[in-house]
Amino acid sequence: MTTPQSPTRNPLFWYWSSASAAFGIKNNAFSYLLLPFTTQVLGMPGYVAASALGVAMLWDAVSDLILGHWSDKTSSRLGRRHPFMYAALILLPLSFWGMFNPVMEMTDDLMFWYVLVFAILIRTSTTLVEVPSVAQLPELVSQYEGRSEWLSMRHAFGWLGGNGLHTINFFLWVGHYGMSVHTGYAIYAWVGATLIAIAILISSLGTQKYFAALPRPEKSESDNNLWAVLVHAFRELVQSLANKNFAVLFFNGLLTGIAGGMLAALYLYNTNYFFGFSGTQIAMTGVFVLVSPLISIALIPPIGRIFSKRQIAIFAISCFIFLTPVPYLLFLIGFWPAMGSWLSLFFYSAFIVIEVVCLIINGVMLDSMMADVVEDSEIDTSRRSEGLFYATRGFAAKAFSAGGIFLAGIIVSIVGMESFVTAADMSHDHRVLLTSWFLPIYCGLHLSAIVLLMFYRIQKDTHEQNLATLAERKTVSDVSASVPVAPI
């Protein structure tokens, strides 16, 4: 379809983008709160909690493939994707609330299974909404730069939803009551579950009419069989990996998933214990970060007209490698403001704002590049598999983000942070030990991701040629279908 000159005038632009707020809230909770909740409220050892969350993420990676492929093949009067989104409307808010509000006494044996089951429920229900929703992009907009503009708003909703609630949380709830007190987490869960339900409902109802009117996919008998769906999904995954551009994004997701999972899981330990920030100060960091999505929205259209998506993604990842270590190293050598001071918070927040801008831009470019792979693959396979492609990229990121969370749990145990209550518990030796494990792994993974992106080949002219080829094929097919068959 052709996109209007300004997508902001298109209601679908806002409805489609708003779904990401639900994902942002869930992702923020899992990335930043769940490891501290399980270790400091439930009292689980770091490696045990990380193991439960890691197993859940591995399950999530597999379920992404199943549901992504399933949504590609679903034939419904609501459209291909919406039946899954409406199922998530019920399951995701309930399971999100249940994770932070155990309704039974938590024994040592029960804690692992409780966290594992609820983590699986939350991740599966998130897949029900996020994978079908983001897979709608290629059917909404085909223009090369336009896809990045739509995705910039979607990523902005995700960050504003997740980080916005995170900021309020550290002003009023977890930050106020303390990381080791259940009360703050319980209130956070109530508010988060409510906002998740509202975001899913608005996006689903707002986009339903458009997608229900699109042609339904051809459906075979095997599409009703869950095992056949799984086998077919993996078969198509193997075929898709033959597309070199897709393979680059797939393995790029493996590497960045580990790095991102580790960084996010360590975030509250780093801010609370390494830098000595209070709950209010951590909340203020969130306030500063709220400007990052707005900066990203303003930057992406102009830089997208000057540079290729690959160039922009490589530059953004390079910023992670350069910026992330700086505050830690300066702190260790004594060139950083006093621990826990507001001047320290200001400098730290400045680094984080720039890093988040680069993180959003990188995510937008990679998702937009994946959208361009849809048509590139269709040239060879003659099928559109948006759901499978986005699910597979998620599969890579989530499967190996599980490794990142597990690494974070190991680091927490090695440093001994499970028993920390205040920043005073963390000595200089603890800080050196933390950075000597965390920074080399984090930067090395991102450097490897940059090397991979050098092999991505779809540029603007390639994409436009792919669209022209597919349009020509459709014209030939329509003409052939309209030619009457001579009677025998």
Structure description:
This protein is mainly α. The chain is 80% helix and 0% strand. The protein contains 19 helices and no strands. α2 runs parallel beside α7, α3 crosses α10 (226-241) and α16 (342-381) runs antiparallel to α17. The longest helix has 40 residues, at 342-381. The protein is globular and about 75 Å long. The model has no long low-confidence stretch (mean pLDDT 86).
Task: Give a short synopsis of this structure.
The protein is mostly helical and 488 residues long. The chain has helices spanning 11-18, 20-41, 46-73, 82-100, 108-134, 137-140, 144-172, 174-177, 182-212, 226-241, 244-274, 279-289, 291-306, 309-323, 325-333, 342-381, 386-415, 428-453, 460-482.
Descriptive labels:
mainly alpha, globular
Mean pLDDT: 86
User: How many angstroms separate the termini?
Assistant: 40 Å
Task: Note the beta-strand portion.
Answer: under 5%
- Tell me the structural class: mainly alpha
Low-confidence stretches at least 5 residues in length (pLDDT < 50)? Answer: none
Main sheet record: none
N-to-C SSE string, H for helix and E for strand: HHHHHHHHHHHHHHHHHHH
Beta strands, count? 0
Helicity, as a percent range:
over 70%
What's the topology here?
Layout lengths: L10 H8 L1 H22 L4 H28 L8 H19 L7 H27 L2 H4 L3 H29 L1 H4 L4 H31 L13 H16 L2 H31 L4 H11 L1 H16 L2 H15 L1 H9 L8 H40 L4 H30 L12 H26 L6 H23 L6
